[in-house]
Write a structure and sequence with these properties.
- The structure holds two protein chains of two kinds.
- By secondary structure, chain A is of the alpha+beta class.
- Chain A has helices at 28-45, 48-56, 60-65, 68-82, 88-99, 112-120, 176-179, 197-201, and strands at 141-144, 163-173, 188-196, 210-216, 220-222.
- Chain A has two domains: 28-120, Cyclin A, domain 1; 141-222, SH3 type barrels, CATH 2.30.30.50.
- Chain A contains eight helices and five strands, in the order H-H-H-H-H-H-E-E-H-E-H-E-E.
- Chain A has a five-stranded antiparallel beta sheet.
- In chain A, 39% of the residues are buried.
- By secondary structure, chain B is mainly alpha-helical.
- Chain B folds into two domains: 12-44, no CATH class; 48-191, Nitrile Hydratase, Chain A (Alpha-Beta Complex).
- Chain B contains eleven helices and four strands, in the order αααααββααααββαα.
- Chain B has helices at residues 12-26, 32-44, 48-60, 62-70, 72-77, 112-115, 120-123, 125-130, 135-141, 178-184, 187-191; strands at residues 89-93, 98-103, 151-156, 162-166.
- Chain B starts with 11 loop residues before the first helix and ends in a 5-residue tail after the last helix.
- Residues 1-7 of chain B have low confidence and may be disordered.
- Classes of the chains: A alpha+beta, B mainly alpha.
- At the A-B interface, helix 1, helix 4, helix 5, helix 6 and strand 2 of A face helix 1, helix 2, helix 7, helix 8 and helix 9 of B.
């Protein structure tokens, strides 16, 4: 999807603003939104591909007005509704109850060590047991296809149509373009492709500098 | 968890998050105390101090450094560091010839187990848009001057590989203990926007 999220190389966003002594979360609700999103992914049954795809569907102007965790929450809400777990009406009704001071509590207890153990394995999207042929190898010259799908994809706009070199084959990973659409994992090889800065940016690129992008098999053709 | 701004009336976002948490909890899909523990974990145990231990060990132990550059995930796990957003780690080394810097232009992918949760600037449109296109200007703004004969290599974390930079060891720090060296390593050094 050629959305506002795909901002590598764009002009006009201004200076990088750094915050002195930045807190981990800027409000309590950000901390809750963080933990809630991780838990809900397991509970509802979605992965980052879905979270990202739903963030990307947020209209551009709203996307730019929203903070990081606001984007997460908008995405979580739309996934929960899409999966039939929540309805917009019950969310709005609960907000109305809460703003009048209502409160619900619940849940089991879980120690910090137990949680530490629970997340230690992570949730890799690598599929080492799936055997898929690799169409490319390190050293191959490749061109990124000039595709502009309407759905979620991870081929950044700035590298499409550009010529690069494969510098690593990371093995077989879930393919986000189909997985984000609930069309199956369809795992395939994922490669790191290195592009010369001048190939990407013309005269604005510094000779000798480079940018690497991690790209799935389907995004590439022999260069 | 740490307390934040408790005296302000609840914002629209705070109410919205609370409503969704309650509803999902009532349906048995999330566990509020699990959310408490997750927040606490990232506020206490997960953070750049983990990455700093990895870097310090790599500086003092050449065999470990070789393992780290060969298979980042496994070498980092040797120090009991692993988990979400660090399942497939690649560590890239700054040398006399290459200066590495990490970004995610599409969202804000970041190696949580070694660096914690990303700072706002890393997630912001200015950093994400600019660092792939004008990395030397961005690095100068962060106070890093990369000589013209050194390659700047920007790693855009566009898939599920997560990157961490192994900074060059500072002059004059040889002979220090791993603990002392770990104290010198900064988060920004491991993103590649600072030298150590």
């Amino acid at each position: 999807m050629d959305g506002i999220h795909d901002m590598g190389g764009m002009h006009g966003f201004g200076k990088i603003e750094r915050e002195e002594n930045e807190p981990l979360f800027h409000a309590d609700w950000e901390a809750r939104a963080f933990g809630l999103s991780l838990q809900a992914a397991d509970g509802i049954g979605f992965v980052d591909d879905h979270l990202r795809a739903n963030i990307e569907r947020i209209p551009a102007a709203k996307y730019l007005r929203s903070s990081y965790y606001e984007l997460w929450m908008q995405s979580l809400e739309s996934i929960a509704i899409e999966k039939g777990v929540l309805t917009q009406q019950e969310i709005e009704a609960r907000i109305a109850t809460l703003s009048e001071g209502g409160r619900a509590e619940g849940g089991s207890d879980l120690s910090l060590d137990e949680m530490d153990e629970a997340i230690a394995g992570g949730a890799s999207t690598k599929r080492p047991d799936v055997v898929v042929a690799a169409g490319f190898k390190s050293g191959d010259k490749v061109r990124v296809k000039n595709d502009h799908p309407r759905h979620h994809t991870r081929a950044t706009r700035y590298c499409r149509g550009r010529l690069g070199e494969v510098i690593a084959d990371h093995g077989v990973f879930v393919f986000p373009d189909s997985n984000s659409e609930w069309q199956g994992e369809n795992p395939e090889h994922c490669y790191t492709v290195m592009f010369a800065a001048e190939e990407l940016w013309g005269e604005a690129g510094t000779q000798g500098d480079s940018v690497t992008v991690d790209l799935w098999e389907s995004y590439l053709e022999h260069g | 968890m740490a307390s934040h701004k408790h005296n302000e009336p609840e914002s629209d976002m705070a109410l919205r998050v609370k409503a969704i948490e309650q509803l999902l909890s009532e349906k048995g899909l999330v566990d509020p105390t699990g959310i408490d523990r997750l927040i606490e974990l990232y506020e206490t145990r997960v953070g750049p101090h983990n990455g700093a231990r990895v870097v310090a060990k790599a500086w003092t132990d050449p065999d470990y450094r070789a393992r780290l550059l060969e298979n980042g995930t496994d070498a980092i796990a040797e120090l009991d560091v692993s988990g979400i957003q660090g399942e497939n780690m690649v560590v890239v080394e700054n040398t006399q010839n290459v200066h590495n810097v990490v970004v995610c232009t599409l969202c804000s992918c970041y190696p949580w187990p070694v660096l914690g949760l990303p700072p706002r600037w890393y997630k912001s449109p200015p950093y994400r848009s600019r660092v792939v296109r004008e990395p030397r200007t961005v690095l100068e703004e962060f106070g890093v001057e990369v000589p013209s004969d050194v390659e700047v290599r920007v790693w855009d974390s566009s898939a599920e590989i997560r990157y961490m930079v192994l900074p060059s060891q500072p002059e004059g720090s040889k002979g220090k203990s791993e603990e002392e060296l770990a104290e010198m390593v900064t988060r920004d050094g491991m993103i590649g926007v600072a030298t150590v």
